[in-house]
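Continuing the batch. This is chain 6 of the set; chains 1 through 5 are on the previous pages. Same settings as before, nothing changed between runs. Recording input and output for traceability.
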Amino acid sequence: MSRAVNEHDDKLKYLTYKVFDLETKSRNKNILIYGYEENRYDVYDIVNEFICDQLRLEASDFYIDHAERLGQVNNHCHGQATSKRTILVTFRYPSEVDKIMSSARNLAGSRYAVDRDYPTEIRLARKSMWSEYKEYRRTATTKFSYVSLQHCM
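Output for chain 6:
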């Protein structure tokens, strides 16, 4: 009896990891944009403006499959006149997300932020490790350098 239960537990764990892997892969063409106040403008126009003005990239180099605001509209959130709902953007290719993320440093000091669309489990794990990462960065005395593979062979 316990052998059958163990086999079912193993199968359930395997399927859980499989679903998690599929969800992660299905989000690899998504980004989340934070900081835009609610307005009546077309979300696609906002994303194109964000790519050009904030990230300093050419919007015509990106193909947006889908863009939408997440969550409910709440115009009186926490005493503010307007709310800032996150924008979810789906691109055609994962390489477009990589270009966006490599230009995210241009957002330093602005009211905007961008991140990959991770599943909840990964987002929570990253959040729990953030303070440790910041402390490590602050105290790290060793600078890492990359060695070309041709020197290793």
